[in-house]
Write a structure and sequence with these properties.
single chain; alpha+beta; 4 helices; globular
Length: 120
């Protein structure tokens, strides 16, 4: 996948669900759970500040925790639709750069995450 320069559309108004392993990985950096999460609709989610992910450096358009980012961020633009299954999010400007092999790899990661969360 090749994101367009200065694109961080996926970091705006995120609904990103976090697994316990995501939370522990981010906590290992020194962040407190209460700082970067909110509990909503039965799941911990990344907190938004001023309409963007708390870890987005809005000036640079870069993620402050990129190497430690949640699995959901790693697999994007692959998402799970309850009616359609695993699909590419058409809101992502880079969906045409996702290879078939990369799609399958991300589906496997996302399946594991969804299983851990009890969603599928």
């Amino acid at each position: 996948m090749k994101c367009p320069p200065n694109c961080f559309k996926c970091c705006l108004d995120t609904e990103m669900i976090l697994s316990e392993s995501d939370i522990k990985r981010i906590e290992s950096l020194g962040y407190k759970r209460e700082y970067f999460t909110e509990f909503r609709d039965g799941f911990y989610r990344l907190r938004n500040i001023d309409g963007h992910c708390i870890f987005l450096n809005i000036e640079t358009g870069k993620c402050k925790i990129y190497s430690y980012r949640p699995i959901g961020c790693r697999v994007y633009p692959v998402i799970y639709d309850l009616n359609k299954g695993f699909i590419l999010d058409t809101d992502c400007p880079a969906i045409n750069t996702v290879t078939g092999r990369e799609f399958l790899y991300k589906v496997r990661l996302l399946s594991k995450l969804l299983s851990e969360l009890g969603i599928i």
